[in-house]
Design goal:
The structure holds 2 protein chains of 2 kinds. Chain A is of the alpha/beta class. Helix content of chain A is about 35%, strand content about 20%. Chain A has a single domain (about 5-110, about 200-380), classed as Thiolase/Chalcone synthase (Peroxisomal Thiolase, Chain A, domain 1), CATH 3.40.47.10. In chain A, the strands form 2 sheets. Chain A has a 9-stranded mixed β-sheet with strand order 3-2-4-7-1-8-12-11-10. Chain A has a two-stranded antiparallel ribbon with strand order 5-6. The radius of gyration of chain A is 19 Å and the shape is globular. Chain B is an all-beta fold. Chain B has strands at about 5, 10, 20-25, 30, 50, 55-65, 85-90, 95-100, 115-125, 130-140. In chain B, the strands form 2 sheets. Chain B has a 5-stranded mixed beta barrel. In chain B, strands 2, 3, 4 and 5 form a 4-stranded antiparallel β-sheet that branches. The chains are: A alpha/beta, B mainly beta. β9 of chain A pairs antiparallel with β8 of chain B, so a sheet runs across the interface.
C-alpha cells in the first residue's frame, strides 16, 4: 500500500453565480488546483468527478484537454465529493496510478432540495408532505435535545459561529455575521430549527490533486497526507433521512461507523485531532456529529459550545471555514470543500481564520441521504 | 364528497376505519412500512403483508413551517393559505416507528412519549371531486 499526499487544491467561490454554469465552476476549480500543484492537466493519469445537478463531470475533458486519462463520474448522494476522493485515494494507494485529481461541482435550484419520490412506489410519501430533509433534521435534533439536554440557544451559537467564520473566508457564500437573537427570531422552518440554522443548496466547485506520497516533494514543500478515507452506508436500526419507517431497534448510524474505521486506519484517536470540519446541514447536525464522530460524549456539547471550545481559537475548532451554514451545499463539491479547508489550515495558509499553534492533524465528515457518511483524516 | 386514500396500498379502510399496511418478516419477526418483500434486517425476501397497530407513542416530532415544493406535495402550497403541520415518528409497540403527519401543530402541545392514535387529514380535491386524505396521528384522549 502506498501513502497518498494532497499537493494541489483549487476552489471556485461558493454561493450563487448567475451566468456561470456548474461545469464552469468545476473547470475553474481544476485549473486552480493544477496551478497550486504546479502541475499540468496532461500530467494527470485519472480523475474522479462528482456532480448531482450540473452535468456529467467527464465532459470537462473537452475544455481541459483530450489527453485520454481515465475519467470516472461519481454520484453518491451527499457523499458524492467524499466518494470521488476515496476512489482517488484507493487508485493511488493500490499502486494503479501515481497522480490524479478528485473534483466536484454543483449548481442547485433555489430553496430546499426537491425530492423525487416518483417511480419508486413512494409517490404518496412526498404527496403527503413528508420526504423533506428539513423534517428529518428537525426531528433528529428534537429527540436529541430531549435525551441530552441541548438547548436552542446552543443551536443558535453554532449558527453565529458559522457566519462569523464565514465572514473571514473569501470563498464563503454567506459572509455577514448574525446575532443569536437574529438567528432565533428568523422564520421557524422545522421546529426547533429556524431559517438561519439551516444551510441552503448552492453552487461551487472544488478540486484536489493527489499523488503517491514519494512524489509529493516534486510538487510542493508543504504536502498534506491523507491518513484515512472512509465511506459507510447505514446499518439496520439507524435513524436516517427519508425513512417512512424506523426500526424499534437502535443501532449507531453510518457516521459512528465511518469515524471508528477512519481512526483505526489512521492509527490515532479523537484526542489527537487538532480541528474538524463536521457536516452542519443545520446547526443541530454539528452538535450531534461532534459526539457521533467521537470528539465528546452525548450531551457534553452543551457546555463545550457555550464555553467557546469550538471557536477558531478554542480547544477544538469546528467548521473553521463557516461550514455548510456559511458556504451552502453544492452536493458534488461539499465534502471536498471540507478537505480544501483542512489543507489550508495544515499548511498555515488559512489567513484570518488560521487555527493557532500550528495544527498537525485535521478531520472531515460528511453526512447525507440516504444514510451515508464519509470521513477523512489529514496530517502534515 | 367521497374520501379517497392518497395510496390505498399504504393507507386502507378509507372512508371509515383507516389502517396502515406494513409487512412482517416470518423469518426474523421484523416489521416494515410500507410493505416490501425484502427484509432489511435478515436479508430474506418473504415479508408478508400485515395491518399495523393504530395506537402508539410519539417518539420525535417537528413542525413543517413552510410549504413543501409541489411536485411532489399535493396539499396547500400557497404561502397565504398554508398552515404549518406536525410530522413525527410514532412508535407502534412491537412493530415499527411510522413517520406520519400529526394533527397537532403547536409545539407546546406535543411531547415525546405522548400516546397517539391513527386518523386521517385532508390533502387535496382530485379531478373527480374526491377528497384525498393521508394518514396522521392525533393525541389520544388519555394523555
Amino acid at each position: 500500500m502506498h501513502d497518498v499526499a494532497i499537493v494541489g487544491i483549487g476552489m471556485h467561490e461558493f454561493g450563487r453565480h448567475d451566468g456561470v454554469t456548474g461545469m464552469d465552476q468545476g473547470v475553474i476549480a481544476v485549473r486552480r488546483a493544477l496551478a497550486d500543484a504546479g502541475a499540468q492537466w496532461e500530467d494527470l493519469e485519472f480523475a474522479f468527478g462528482g456532480s448531482k445537478d450540473a452535468g456529467s463531470p467527464d465532459t470537462m475533458v473537452s475544455r481541459l484537454g483530450l489527453t485520454g486519462l481515465q475519467f470516472i463520474n461519481v454520484h453518491n448522494g451527499c457523499a458524492t465529493g467524499g466518494s470521488a476522493l476515496i476512489s482517488s485515494y484507493n487508485a493511488i494507494r493500490s499502486g494503479t496510478f501515481e497522480i490524479g485529481i478528485a473534483l466536484g461541482f454543483d449548481k442547485h435550484e433555489r430553496g430546499a432540495f426537491r425530492v423525487r419520490t416518483r417511480g419508486d412506489n413512494l409517490e404518496w410519501y412526498g404527496e403527503s408532505g413528508m420526504a423533506l430533509t428539513t423534517q428529518f433534521f428537525g426531528m433528529k435534533i428534537n429527540r436529541y435535545m430531549h435525551d441530552y439536554g441541548i438547548t436552542q440557544n446552543t443551536l443558535a451559537r453554532v449558527s453565529t459561529k458559522a457566519f462569523r467564520n464565514g465572514a473571514l473566508n473569501p470563498m464563503a457564500w454567506r459572509r455577514k455575521p448574525f446575532s443569536e437573537e437574529e438567528v432565533l427570531e428568523s422564520t421557524m422552518l422545522s421546529y426547533p430549527l429556524t431559517q438561519y440554522m439551516f444551510c441552503s443548496p448552492g453552487e461551487g466547485g472544488v478540486a484536489l490533486v493527489l499523488v503517491r506520497a514519494d512524489r509529493a516533494k516534486e510538487f510542493t514543500d508543504n504536502p498534506v497526507y491523507l491518513k484515512s478515507c472512509v465511506v459507510k452506508s447505514r446499518r439496520f436500526g439507524s435513524f436516517e433521512v427519508f425513512s417512512p419507517h424506523l426500526s424499534n431497534e437502535f443501532s449507531e448510524g453510518p457516521t459512528v461507523d465511518a469515524s471508528k474505521a477512519a481512526f483505526e486506519m489512521a492509527g490515532i484517536g479523537p484526542d489527537e485531532i487538532d480541528l474538524a470540519q463536521l457536516q452542519d446541514t443545520e446547526s443541530g447536525a454539528e452538535v450531534m456529529h461532534m459526539a457521533e464522530n467521537g470528539f465528546c460524549e452525548h450531551g457534553e456539547q452543551e457546555a463545550m459550545i457555550q464555553n467557546g471550545e469550538t471557536e477558531i481559537d478554542g480547544k477544538f475548532p469546528v467548521n473553521t471555514d463557516g461550514g455548510c451554514l456559511a458556504n451552502g451545499e453544492p452536493i458534488g463539491a461539499s465534502g471536498l470543500r471540507q478537505v480544501y479547508e483542512n489543507v489550508l489550515q495544515l499548511r498555515g495558509d488559512a489567513g484570518e481564520r488560521q487555527v493557532p499553534n500550528d495544527p498537525q492533524t485535521a478531520y472531515t465528515h460528511v453526512y447525507g441521504a440516504p444514510g451515508i457518511s464519509g470521513v477523512t483524516i489529514l496530517s502534515k | 364528497m367521497a374520501q379517497v386514500s392518497v395510496q390505498d396500498t399504504v393507507l386502507t379502510g378509507i372512508p371509515g376505519e383507516p389502517r396502515l399496511i406494513g409487512g412482517r418478516c416470518p423469518d426474523c419477526g421484523n416489521h416494515v412500512f410500507p410493505m416490501q418483500k425484502d427484509c432489511p434486517k435478515c436479508t430474506g425476501d418473504r415479508i408478508e403483508q400485515v395491518e399495523l397497530s393504530t395506537k402508539g407513542v410519539l417518539w420525535t416530532w417537528t413542525i413543517q413551517g413552510f410549504p413543501p415544493k409541489s411536485p411532489p406535495y399535493i396539499g396547500e402550497t400557497d404561502p397565504e393559505n398554508f398552515e404549518a403541520y406536525g410530522v413525527g415518528y410514532v412508535e407502534l409497540p412491537g412493530e415499527v416507528k411510522v413517520e406520519a403527519r400529526l394533527t397537532e401543530n403547536d409545539p407546546t402541545r406535543l411531547r415525546v412519549g405522548m400516546e397517539m392514535e391513527l386518523t386521517v387529514v385532508p390533502l387535496a380535491i382530485d379531478e373527480e371531486g374526491n377528497e384525498v386524505v393521508t394518514f396522521a396521528f392525533q393525541p389520544s384522549d388519555n394523555n
